[in-house]
Write a structure and sequence with these properties.
- By secondary structure, the chain is mainly α.
- Helix content is 80%, strand content 0%.
- It is built from 14 helices and no strands.
- Helix 8 packs across helix 13.
- The protein is globular and about 75 Å long.
Protein backbone atom coordinates (compact mmCIF):
# COMPACT_ATOMS: atom_id res chain seq x y z
CA UNK A 1 0.00 0.00 0.00
CA UNK A 2 1.50 3.30 -1.09
CA UNK A 3 2.00 6.19 1.28
CA UNK A 4 -0.37 9.10 0.99
CA UNK A 5 1.36 12.26 -0.18
CA UNK A 6 2.18 14.64 2.62
CA UNK A 7 0.01 17.70 2.70
CA UNK A 8 1.58 21.10 2.56
CA UNK A 9 0.45 21.69 6.13
CA UNK A 10 2.57 18.73 7.19
CA UNK A 11 5.81 20.22 5.94
CA UNK A 12 8.26 21.29 8.61
CA UNK A 13 9.80 24.75 8.66
CA UNK A 14 13.03 23.29 7.27
CA UNK A 15 11.10 21.66 4.39
CA UNK A 16 9.64 24.99 3.39
CA UNK A 17 12.95 26.82 3.67
CA UNK A 18 14.67 24.12 1.61
CA UNK A 19 12.60 25.18 -1.39
CA UNK A 20 14.41 28.54 -1.44
CA UNK A 21 17.77 27.84 0.19
CA UNK A 22 20.11 24.93 0.80
CA UNK A 23 19.13 24.48 4.45
CA UNK A 24 20.31 21.32 6.21
CA UNK A 25 18.70 19.36 9.07
CA UNK A 26 18.85 21.26 12.35
CA UNK A 27 19.41 24.68 10.73
CA UNK A 28 15.79 25.67 10.04
CA UNK A 29 14.73 27.17 13.40
CA UNK A 30 17.96 29.16 13.84
CA UNK A 31 17.70 30.40 10.25
CA UNK A 32 14.10 31.49 10.84
CA UNK A 33 14.98 33.39 14.04
CA UNK A 34 17.91 35.06 12.25
CA UNK A 35 15.54 36.07 9.47
CA UNK A 36 12.99 37.53 11.91
CA UNK A 37 15.75 39.32 13.82
CA UNK A 38 17.19 41.14 10.81
CA UNK A 39 13.70 41.76 9.34
CA UNK A 40 12.59 43.69 12.43
CA UNK A 41 15.93 45.49 12.69
CA UNK A 42 15.93 46.75 9.10
CA UNK A 43 12.22 47.58 9.13
CA UNK A 44 12.92 49.83 12.12
CA UNK A 45 15.89 51.50 10.42
CA UNK A 46 14.13 52.06 7.09
CA UNK A 47 11.19 53.74 8.77
CA UNK A 48 13.78 56.23 10.07
CA UNK A 49 16.19 56.48 7.12
CA UNK A 50 14.05 58.67 4.78
CA UNK A 51 13.34 60.99 7.72
CA UNK A 52 17.10 61.32 8.33
CA UNK A 53 17.82 62.03 4.67
CA UNK A 54 15.15 64.75 4.51
CA UNK A 55 16.52 66.34 7.69
CA UNK A 56 20.01 66.30 6.19
CA UNK A 57 18.74 68.21 3.15
CA UNK A 58 16.74 70.62 5.33
CA UNK A 59 19.88 71.41 7.31
CA UNK A 60 21.66 72.51 4.11
CA UNK A 61 23.72 70.47 1.65
CA UNK A 62 26.73 72.63 2.51
CA UNK A 63 26.53 71.36 6.09
CA UNK A 64 26.52 67.64 5.24
CA UNK A 65 30.34 67.28 5.52
CA UNK A 66 30.11 68.66 9.08
CA UNK A 67 27.37 66.16 9.91
CA UNK A 68 29.61 63.37 8.62
CA UNK A 69 32.44 64.67 10.84
CA UNK A 70 30.12 64.71 13.87
CA UNK A 71 29.07 61.14 13.01
CA UNK A 72 32.70 59.97 12.94
CA UNK A 73 33.37 61.59 16.34
CA UNK A 74 30.23 60.02 17.78
CA UNK A 75 31.21 56.63 16.38
CA UNK A 76 34.64 56.84 18.01
CA UNK A 77 33.06 57.87 21.31
CA UNK A 78 30.56 55.00 21.29
CA UNK A 79 33.04 52.27 20.35
CA UNK A 80 34.83 52.36 23.71
CA UNK A 81 31.76 51.84 25.95
CA UNK A 82 30.56 49.13 23.56
CA UNK A 83 33.95 47.39 23.78
CA UNK A 84 33.67 47.61 27.58
CA UNK A 85 30.25 45.88 27.44
CA UNK A 86 31.69 43.15 25.21
CA UNK A 87 34.55 42.68 27.67
CA UNK A 88 32.38 42.50 30.80
CA UNK A 89 29.04 40.94 29.75
CA UNK A 90 27.98 37.83 27.81
CA UNK A 91 26.38 38.34 24.40
CA UNK A 92 22.92 37.44 25.75
CA UNK A 93 23.13 40.58 27.92
CA UNK A 94 25.17 43.18 26.02
CA UNK A 95 23.18 42.87 22.77
CA UNK A 96 19.74 43.62 24.33
CA UNK A 97 21.29 46.40 26.45
CA UNK A 98 22.72 48.07 23.35
CA UNK A 99 19.44 47.85 21.43
CA UNK A 100 17.37 49.17 24.34
CA UNK A 101 19.74 52.10 24.74
CA UNK A 102 18.93 53.00 21.11
CA UNK A 103 15.18 52.49 21.73
CA UNK A 104 15.37 55.07 24.53
CA UNK A 105 17.16 57.44 22.13
CA UNK A 106 14.38 57.03 19.55
CA UNK A 107 11.70 57.90 22.10
CA UNK A 108 13.65 61.02 23.16
CA UNK A 109 13.96 62.16 19.54
CA UNK A 110 10.23 61.50 19.03
CA UNK A 111 9.43 63.89 21.87
CA UNK A 112 11.90 66.54 20.67
CA UNK A 113 10.53 66.43 17.10
CA UNK A 114 6.97 66.77 18.40
CA UNK A 115 7.78 69.71 20.68
CA UNK A 116 10.18 71.86 18.61
CA UNK A 117 9.88 74.03 15.51
CA UNK A 118 11.79 76.65 13.56
CA UNK A 119 15.56 76.85 13.99
CA UNK A 120 15.46 74.55 17.02
CA UNK A 121 13.81 71.86 14.87
CA UNK A 122 16.61 72.21 12.29
CA UNK A 123 19.22 71.52 14.98
CA UNK A 124 17.20 68.56 16.28
CA UNK A 125 17.15 67.28 12.70
CA UNK A 126 20.92 67.60 12.44
CA UNK A 127 21.37 65.73 15.72
CA UNK A 128 18.99 63.03 14.48
CA UNK A 129 20.96 62.73 11.22
CA UNK A 130 24.17 62.12 13.17
CA UNK A 131 22.52 59.76 15.65
CA UNK A 132 20.87 57.57 12.99
CA UNK A 133 24.12 57.40 11.02
CA UNK A 134 25.69 55.90 14.15
CA UNK A 135 22.68 53.74 15.05
CA UNK A 136 22.36 51.92 11.73
CA UNK A 137 25.96 50.70 11.59
CA UNK A 138 26.06 49.60 15.23
CA UNK A 139 22.82 47.62 15.27
CA UNK A 140 23.49 45.88 11.94
CA UNK A 141 27.12 45.15 12.86
CA UNK A 142 25.98 43.55 16.12
CA UNK A 143 23.48 41.40 14.22
CA UNK A 144 26.09 40.10 11.79
CA UNK A 145 28.63 39.56 14.57
CA UNK A 146 26.06 37.38 16.34
CA UNK A 147 25.20 35.43 13.18
CA UNK A 148 28.88 34.96 12.22
CA UNK A 149 29.41 33.66 15.75
CA UNK A 150 26.61 31.13 15.26
CA UNK A 151 27.16 29.78 11.73
CA UNK A 152 30.30 28.24 10.25
CA UNK A 153 32.04 29.34 7.03
CA UNK A 154 30.36 26.59 5.02
CA UNK A 155 26.96 27.49 6.44
CA UNK A 156 27.60 31.17 5.79
CA UNK A 157 28.20 30.58 2.08
CA UNK A 158 24.88 28.74 1.85
CA UNK A 159 22.71 30.76 4.23
CA UNK A 160 23.94 34.36 4.56
CA UNK A 161 22.37 35.44 1.27
CA UNK A 162 19.00 34.15 2.42
CA UNK A 163 19.38 35.75 5.84
CA UNK A 164 20.21 39.04 4.10
CA UNK A 165 16.92 38.67 2.21
CA UNK A 166 15.19 39.07 5.59
CA UNK A 167 17.00 42.39 5.92
CA UNK A 168 15.80 43.44 2.49
CA UNK A 169 12.19 42.46 3.13
CA UNK A 170 12.30 44.40 6.38
CA UNK A 171 13.78 47.37 4.53
CA UNK A 172 11.03 47.18 1.91
CA UNK A 173 8.33 47.16 4.59
CA UNK A 174 9.93 50.03 6.50
CA UNK A 175 10.42 52.12 3.34
CA UNK A 176 6.85 51.42 2.20
CA UNK A 177 5.42 52.51 5.56
CA UNK A 178 7.28 55.83 5.44
CA UNK A 179 6.58 56.38 1.72
CA UNK A 180 2.83 55.91 2.28
CA UNK A 181 2.51 57.80 5.56
CA UNK A 182 5.14 60.59 5.43
CA UNK A 183 2.74 63.19 4.00
CA UNK A 184 -0.09 62.50 6.48
CA UNK A 185 1.36 61.03 9.70
CA UNK A 186 3.48 63.15 12.06
CA UNK A 187 7.17 62.30 12.10
CA UNK A 188 7.20 61.62 15.84
CA UNK A 189 4.62 58.84 15.38
CA UNK A 190 6.81 57.12 12.77
CA UNK A 191 9.67 57.15 15.29
CA UNK A 192 7.53 55.36 17.87
CA UNK A 193 6.70 52.67 15.31
CA UNK A 194 10.43 52.22 14.69
CA UNK A 195 11.06 51.79 18.43
CA UNK A 196 8.44 49.01 18.60
CA UNK A 197 10.10 47.21 15.68
CA UNK A 198 13.50 47.44 17.37
CA UNK A 199 12.07 45.79 20.50
CA UNK A 200 10.75 43.00 18.24
CA UNK A 201 14.34 42.50 17.05
CA UNK A 202 15.44 41.99 20.67
CA UNK A 203 12.75 39.32 21.06
CA UNK A 204 13.97 37.49 17.93
CA UNK A 205 17.59 37.73 19.09
CA UNK A 206 16.64 35.95 22.32
CA UNK A 207 14.92 33.23 20.31
CA UNK A 208 18.07 32.73 18.26
CA UNK A 209 20.26 32.64 21.38
CA UNK A 210 18.23 29.72 22.78
CA UNK A 211 19.02 27.61 19.71
CA UNK A 212 22.75 28.22 19.35
CA UNK A 213 23.83 24.98 21.02
CA UNK A 214 21.63 22.85 18.75
CA UNK A 215 23.15 23.92 15.42
CA UNK A 216 25.33 21.61 13.37
CA UNK A 217 28.87 22.76 12.64
CA UNK A 218 28.73 25.65 15.09
CA UNK A 219 32.17 26.52 16.47
CA UNK A 220 32.52 25.29 20.03
CA UNK A 221 33.46 28.72 21.34
CA UNK A 222 30.17 30.28 20.12
CA UNK A 223 28.41 30.30 23.49
CA UNK A 224 25.99 33.11 24.29
CA UNK A 225 26.50 32.76 28.03
CA UNK A 226 30.27 33.27 28.07
CA UNK A 227 32.05 36.60 28.36
CA UNK A 228 34.28 37.33 25.37
CA UNK A 229 36.84 39.19 27.51
CA UNK A 230 39.95 40.96 26.20
CA UNK A 231 40.49 44.70 26.52
CA UNK A 232 38.55 47.67 25.13
CA UNK A 233 41.33 48.65 22.70
CA UNK A 234 41.56 45.20 21.11
CA UNK A 235 39.38 46.09 18.12
CA UNK A 236 41.69 48.88 16.99
CA UNK A 237 44.94 47.11 17.88
CA UNK A 238 44.05 43.78 16.28
CA UNK A 239 42.78 45.43 13.10
CA UNK A 240 45.99 47.40 12.60
CA UNK A 241 48.20 44.38 13.42
CA UNK A 242 46.49 41.95 11.01
CA UNK A 243 46.99 42.32 7.22
CA UNK A 244 43.77 40.35 6.73
CA UNK A 245 41.65 42.60 8.95
CA UNK A 246 43.40 45.69 7.61
CA UNK A 247 42.41 44.73 4.07
CA UNK A 248 38.80 44.15 5.16
CA UNK A 249 38.95 47.68 6.58
CA UNK A 250 40.32 48.95 3.26
CA UNK A 251 37.53 47.18 1.37
CA UNK A 252 34.91 48.91 3.50
CA UNK A 253 36.65 52.30 3.37
CA UNK A 254 36.80 52.29 -0.44
CA UNK A 255 33.15 51.26 -0.61
CA UNK A 256 32.20 54.04 1.81
CA UNK A 257 34.16 56.78 0.02
CA UNK A 258 32.58 55.99 -3.33
CA UNK A 259 29.12 55.53 -1.75
CA UNK A 260 29.36 59.02 -0.25
CA UNK A 261 30.05 60.51 -3.67
CA UNK A 262 26.79 59.00 -4.93
CA UNK A 263 24.90 60.01 -1.78
CA UNK A 264 25.76 63.67 -2.36
CA UNK A 265 24.57 63.44 -5.95
CA UNK A 266 21.28 61.92 -4.81
CA UNK A 267 20.83 64.62 -2.13
CA UNK A 268 21.40 67.34 -4.74
CA UNK A 269 18.81 65.73 -7.03
CA UNK A 270 16.24 65.69 -4.20
CA UNK A 271 16.88 69.31 -3.22
CA UNK A 272 16.72 70.61 -6.80
CA UNK A 273 13.68 68.65 -7.96
CA UNK A 274 11.38 68.16 -4.93
CA UNK A 275 10.50 71.40 -3.15
CA UNK A 276 8.48 70.26 -0.11
CA UNK A 277 9.66 68.36 2.97
CA UNK A 278 7.07 65.60 2.52
CA UNK A 279 7.92 65.18 -1.18
CA UNK A 280 11.64 64.86 -0.38
CA UNK A 281 10.97 62.26 2.32
CA UNK A 282 8.72 60.30 -0.05
CA UNK A 283 11.41 60.49 -2.80
CA UNK A 284 14.07 59.04 -0.51
CA UNK A 285 11.64 56.35 0.66
CA UNK A 286 10.76 55.39 -2.92
CA UNK A 287 14.44 55.15 -3.88
CA UNK A 288 14.98 52.87 -0.87
CA UNK A 289 11.97 50.83 -1.93
CA UNK A 290 13.41 50.36 -5.44
CA UNK A 291 16.80 49.35 -4.01
CA UNK A 292 15.29 46.79 -1.70
CA UNK A 293 12.82 45.31 -4.19
CA UNK A 294 15.70 44.63 -6.60
CA UNK A 295 17.89 43.34 -3.78
CA UNK A 296 15.29 40.86 -2.54
CA UNK A 297 15.02 38.93 -5.79
CA UNK A 298 18.79 38.58 -6.08
CA UNK A 299 19.18 37.48 -2.46
CA UNK A 300 16.46 34.85 -2.60
CA UNK A 301 17.53 33.19 -5.83
CA UNK A 302 21.10 34.17 -6.76
CA UNK A 303 23.39 35.22 -3.90
CA UNK A 304 24.14 31.76 -2.50
CA UNK A 305 24.54 30.27 -5.96
CA UNK A 306 26.82 33.08 -7.17
CA UNK A 307 29.07 32.65 -4.12
CA UNK A 308 29.35 28.89 -4.66
CA UNK A 309 30.00 29.29 -8.41
CA UNK A 310 32.50 32.16 -8.29
CA UNK A 311 34.03 31.91 -4.82
CA UNK A 312 34.37 34.65 -2.23
CA UNK A 313 37.00 36.80 -3.99
CA UNK A 314 35.37 37.06 -7.43
CA UNK A 315 31.95 37.59 -5.87
CA UNK A 316 33.32 40.45 -3.76
CA UNK A 317 34.89 41.93 -6.89
CA UNK A 318 31.53 42.20 -8.71
CA UNK A 319 30.50 45.42 -6.92
CA UNK A 320 33.74 47.36 -7.55
CA UNK A 321 33.67 46.18 -11.18
CA UNK A 322 30.12 47.49 -11.56
CA UNK A 323 31.14 50.73 -9.81
CA UNK A 324 33.88 51.33 -12.38
CA UNK A 325 31.26 51.15 -15.14
CA UNK A 326 28.73 53.32 -13.29
CA UNK A 327 31.13 56.10 -12.32
CA UNK A 328 32.65 56.10 -15.80
CA UNK A 329 29.15 56.67 -17.21
CA UNK A 330 28.58 59.59 -14.81
CA UNK A 331 32.01 61.04 -15.64
CA UNK A 332 31.22 60.99 -19.36
CA UNK A 333 27.85 62.74 -18.79
CA UNK A 334 28.80 66.33 -17.94
CA UNK A 335 25.27 66.98 -16.60
CA UNK A 336 23.81 63.68 -15.32
CA UNK A 337 20.01 63.45 -15.38
CA UNK A 338 17.87 62.61 -12.36
CA UNK A 339 17.15 59.20 -13.86
CA UNK A 340 20.82 58.34 -14.46
CA UNK A 341 21.88 59.23 -10.91
CA UNK A 342 18.97 57.28 -9.41
CA UNK A 343 19.53 54.22 -11.62
CA UNK A 344 23.26 54.00 -10.78
CA UNK A 345 22.54 54.65 -7.10
CA UNK A 346 19.86 51.92 -7.00
CA UNK A 347 21.94 49.33 -8.87
CA UNK A 348 25.03 49.95 -6.75
CA UNK A 349 23.22 49.79 -3.41
CA UNK A 350 21.30 46.70 -4.49
CA UNK A 351 24.59 45.06 -5.49
CA UNK A 352 26.01 45.84 -2.07
CA UNK A 353 23.05 44.53 -0.08
CA UNK A 354 22.38 41.50 -2.27
CA UNK A 355 25.92 40.29 -2.90
CA UNK A 356 28.80 42.23 -1.33
CA UNK A 357 27.41 42.56 2.21
CA UNK A 358 26.52 38.90 2.93
CA UNK A 359 29.74 37.69 1.25
CA UNK A 360 31.80 40.22 3.21
CA UNK A 361 30.42 38.70 6.40
CA UNK A 362 31.85 35.32 5.34
CA UNK A 363 35.31 36.90 5.71
CA UNK A 364 34.77 37.09 9.47
CA UNK A 365 33.97 33.38 9.88
CA UNK A 366 37.72 32.61 9.77
CA UNK A 367 38.85 35.04 12.51
CA UNK A 368 38.97 34.51 16.30
CA UNK A 369 35.78 35.13 18.26
CA UNK A 370 37.07 38.33 19.89
CA UNK A 371 37.70 39.81 16.43
CA UNK A 372 34.13 39.04 15.37
CA UNK A 373 32.82 41.54 17.90
CA UNK A 374 35.62 44.02 18.59
CA UNK A 375 37.60 44.30 15.35
CA UNK A 376 34.43 43.82 13.29
CA UNK A 377 32.59 46.51 15.23
CA UNK A 378 35.51 48.92 14.79
CA UNK A 379 35.69 48.22 11.04
CA UNK A 380 31.92 48.32 10.47
CA UNK A 381 31.46 51.58 12.36
CA UNK A 382 34.57 53.75 12.72
CA UNK A 383 36.31 52.72 9.48
CA UNK A 384 33.04 52.95 7.54
CA UNK A 385 32.34 56.45 8.84
CA UNK A 386 35.96 57.47 8.29
CA UNK A 387 35.42 56.55 4.65
CA UNK A 388 32.26 58.68 4.69
CA UNK A 389 34.31 61.55 6.07
CA UNK A 390 36.98 61.26 3.39
CA UNK A 391 34.29 61.07 0.71
CA UNK A 392 32.31 64.01 2.10
CA UNK A 393 35.23 66.40 2.39
CA UNK A 394 36.70 65.28 -0.93
CA UNK A 395 33.36 66.02 -2.60
CA UNK A 396 33.15 69.39 -0.81
CA UNK A 397 36.73 70.23 -1.80
CA UNK A 398 36.08 69.42 -5.45
CA UNK A 399 32.92 71.54 -5.37
CA UNK A 400 34.83 74.45 -3.79
CA UNK A 401 37.31 74.25 -6.66
CA UNK A 402 34.41 74.43 -9.12
CA UNK A 403 34.51 70.82 -10.32
CA UNK A 404 31.32 69.42 -8.75
CA UNK A 405 29.92 65.93 -9.07
CA UNK A 406 31.54 65.24 -12.46
CA UNK A 407 35.04 65.38 -10.94
CA UNK A 408 33.94 63.13 -8.04
CA UNK A 409 32.86 60.50 -10.58
CA UNK A 410 36.24 60.76 -12.33
CA UNK A 411 38.09 60.26 -9.03
CA UNK A 412 35.84 57.31 -8.13
CA UNK A 413 36.92 55.26 -11.17
CA UNK A 414 40.55 54.57 -10.06
CA UNK A 415 39.37 54.16 -6.46
CA UNK A 416 36.98 51.46 -7.64
CA UNK A 417 39.81 49.77 -9.57
CA UNK A 418 41.93 49.62 -6.39
CA UNK A 419 38.88 48.29 -4.55
CA UNK A 420 38.52 45.48 -7.11
CA UNK A 421 42.13 44.34 -6.57
CA UNK A 422 41.60 44.46 -2.81
CA UNK A 423 38.51 42.21 -3.14
CA UNK A 424 40.43 39.57 -5.10
CA UNK A 425 43.24 39.56 -2.48
CA UNK A 426 40.70 39.10 0.32
CA UNK A 427 39.14 36.14 -1.46
CA UNK A 428 42.48 34.34 -1.67
CA UNK A 429 43.35 35.19 1.95
CA UNK A 430 39.98 33.90 3.21
CA UNK A 431 40.43 30.63 1.32
CA UNK A 432 43.91 30.15 2.82
CA UNK A 433 42.61 30.77 6.34
CA UNK A 434 39.70 28.39 5.86
CA UNK A 435 42.00 25.67 4.54
CA UNK A 436 44.38 26.13 7.48
CA UNK A 437 41.48 25.89 9.94
CA UNK A 438 40.27 22.68 8.31
CA UNK A 439 43.75 21.18 8.48
CA UNK A 440 44.04 22.10 12.19
CA UNK A 441 40.65 20.51 12.87
CA UNK A 442 41.70 17.33 11.02
CA UNK A 443 44.96 17.13 12.99
CA UNK A 444 43.12 17.58 16.29
CA UNK A 445 40.65 14.85 15.33
CA UNK A 446 43.52 12.52 14.40
CA UNK A 447 45.26 13.19 17.71
CA UNK A 448 42.02 12.48 19.55
CA UNK A 449 41.73 9.14 17.72
CA UNK A 450 45.33 8.24 18.59
CA UNK A 451 44.91 9.23 22.25
CA UNK A 452 41.36 8.31 23.26
CA UNK A 453 40.13 9.46 26.64
CA UNK A 454 40.59 6.77 29.33
CA UNK A 455 37.52 4.82 30.25
CA UNK A 456 36.07 5.43 33.73
CA UNK A 457 36.99 2.73 36.29
CA UNK A 458 34.57 -0.13 36.61
CA UNK A 459 32.62 -0.21 39.84
CA UNK A 460 33.90 -2.66 42.42
Amino acid sequence: MSEAPASSSGFSLSDRLARLVDVRPGEGPALAWSWAYIFALLASYYVLRPIRDQMGVAGGLENLPWLFLATLIGMLALNLPFAWLVKRLPRARFVPLTYRFFILNILIFSALIALTDGETAVWVGRAFFVWLSIFNLFVVSIFWATVVDVFSTEQGKRLFGFIAAGATLGAICGSAVTAMLARDVPTWALLIAAAVLLEAAVFAMRGLARLIGRLHEVPEDSRAGEVIGGDIWAGIRRTVASPYLLNIALFLALFSITATFLYFEQAAVAKNNFPSRGAQTAFFANVDLAVNALTLGVQLFLTGRITRWLGVGVTLALLPAASIVGFAALALALSPSVASVVVIYVLRRAGNFAIARPVREVLFTVVPREDRYKAKSFIDTVVYRLGDQVGAWSHAGLAALGFGGHAAAVVAVPLSAAWLLNALWLGRAQARRQEAAQQDAAQQAAQADDNPAPLPPRPA
